[in-house]
Write a structure and sequence with these properties.
Layout lengths: L1 H14 L2 H8 L3 H15 L4 E3 L4 E3 L1 H27 L5 E7 L1 H6 L1 H11 L3 E7 L2 H9 L5 E4 L8 E3 L4 E10 L19 E6 L4 H13 L3 E7 L2 H9 L5 E4 H10 L2 E4 L7 E9 L7 H12 L3
Parallel strand pairs: 3-4, 3-5, 8-9
Antiparallel strand pairs: 1-2, 5-12, 6-12, 7-10, 7-11, 7-12
Length: about 300
Amino acid sequence: MVVDTLRVFVTVVEQSHFSRAAELLNLSQPGVSLHIRNLENEFGTKLIHRSSKHVKVTEAGAMLYKQAKQMLALYDKAKEDIRQLRDEVAGTLKVGASLTIGEYVLPRFLAEFTYQYPQIDISVTIANTEEIAQAVRANELDIGMVEGKVVYDEIELQPPFMADEMVLVAPMDHALCNVKKGVDSELLQDHVWVLRESGSGTRAFSDQFMEKSGIQMKRSYVFNSSQGVKEAVVAGLGIAMLSKLVVRKELQAGELCSILVKNTRLVRDFRILQDRKAAAETMAAKMFIQKLRQFQL
């Protein structure tokens, strides 16, 4: 079917690599090459220059890519419109989540959602908040779920779908664990902190908390996952601000202690992102968002 060949061509152009395109499309690399050759034979011109290191689109290929994107969008919309006529919730859905949501909320939600809607084919991307926002902005994701602040004109930031409690945690032998009535900014000065990387919603929350409280760090260590931050704190490297979802088991097992912070509300919102300029929202996306708002851990 010509739609399949156009989809292969668009994926090769966007990935700039035959093997990566083959992996995404669940095809063999020779199969991808065959689709491209057939397309070039169809149009009687070279569309892609190949080499062992990169793929370069010809002028004709660039023209076809632009038109192919429009044709595929129209084809997908026609399929969705027909499904909606039949009240059928099906199709494909590309969702992305920041690490806390992707690792501690999304798996349980998807177990329920896919059981109810088995005809929706869902692909999942997990990255930090900024990376998810950029993917939504580039129309690489239909729906993004993040806990950080996102400010882009192209992105619609929807109302929160869940509140997330944050906790200040420390290794069990840390001096702050002995403060039973809570700590203030004075007691939080000059400690070693374990942080997430810049672009993370958890890092943004930690930075905002420390700036508002006027906290100076003695030293800091940076990890690019909440799991890494948690393990570093358990090992005694320092203190950290993390979602309670991330450290719930360790707090119950007595591997970490939770430090009460006086006069401070440590809560953030989980939000849904969508591209304002994206194609009309599909029934699959509508049901995903509706069920996500109803979901409870």
